[in-house]
Amino acid sequence: ALAAEKAAKIAYGSSAVVIPRNPASGPDYLFTKRLGMESIWTGSGPPSAYSHAHAPNEYTTTEDFINGIRYIASIINCYASMR
Q1: How distant, in Å, are the alpha carbons of 11, 35, 60, 61 from that of 44?
Q2: N or C: lower Cβ tally within 10 Å for the chain?
Q3: Residue 7 and residue 68: Cα distance in Å, rounded?
Q4: What is the CA radius of gyration of the chain?
């Protein structure tokens, strides 16, 4: 979660919203138990106010798409620098 928080500040200039998840909500045990790694679940960043997330007419702007790429790349970079 620390890498995602730091990456949000890099990519978006603001803090991430962190919501703890139930460990049984996905196959996280593959990472946390077998590989001894932490895992996070994240989107690619905040959508536009009118993006209609998960609706039939959902879309993204080019700016949101590029910022999402920056965010995910920043997560990888931040996580790697923490190890």
Answers
A1: 10, 24, 11, 13
A2: C
A3: 11
A4: 14
